[in-house]
Design a protein that fits this description.
The chain contains twelve helices and twelve strands. By secondary structure, it is of the alpha/beta class. Helix 5 (99-115) packs across helix 7 (157-168).
Length: 317
Amino acid sequence: MKIVILDGYTENPGDLSWEGFEALGEVTVYDRTSPDDIAERISGAEAVITNKTAITKAHIAACPSLCYIGVLATGYNVVDVVAAAEKNIPVCNIPTYGTAAVAQMTMALLLEICHHAGAHSDAVKAGEWTNNADWTFWKYPLIELAGKTMGIIGFGRIGQTVGKLAAAFGMKVLAYDGLPTAEGREIAEYVSFEQLLAQADVISLHCPLLANNAGMINQDAIAQMKDGVIIINTSRGPLINEEDLAVALRSKKVYAAACDVVSTEPIREDNPLLGCYSTILTPHIAWAPKESRQRLMNIAVDNLKNFIENKVSNRVN
């Protein structure tokens, strides 16, 4: 089998191995592939593996040998799954590799807002503690989470893991999800979207991006929140209307926001959140611990191996 990996660098910048794929066929790995090079690079391929490089209907039509498309991610919107299905080409994703990593990053962002550990370490290294008149100082308000309310929008695997971590910090956990579960009820109280907005001290987003929830955190939603609310987004950037959030940050309606994802990635120079002092922005790294990426690699290899053995797994089309 001829296997082409179009954009392997973010999954494996050199600290993992492609040997699992190499055991299944002849592998060509590209770090990145521009739109102009896709057709040429997949020509003659039987299996194409992509992360964020788009596979369109035209690409599929131009590659008659193609019989499998694997996505090195949970989201698969980069592939025209309908066109693939019309050619009976399975598109297989990686649904559950990063739960622990994303939940951990969510709490890391929240704790950084609460304690500004990095900024205080920088201050110490700059001599501010050595030259301080007192035995202690802090440059920002410090926040204790115990007794506060965490509101989680989207209460699937990641949301529930965040809920458990929040509860371990002594927080009350509220959840909004269209499909409440018995497992979820053991962790959180399910409430309406409006109740969550009104009651939460911290709001964390963990829902997929759908046609009906793009921009769900907007001016109207923020107006229903507590003054001084904290907003965390490790899910999908377009869930937030970034201009509305920037206005709320500048007015102090929102105390702080931490986003690992933004509406356009890489972030544009004119993104309004870049100019907000009380914002933490990280470059979509919640998924990326080595352990998580190795898990992703293993599942991606198993998906292709299962396809070869006529037992397709994690098919999305």
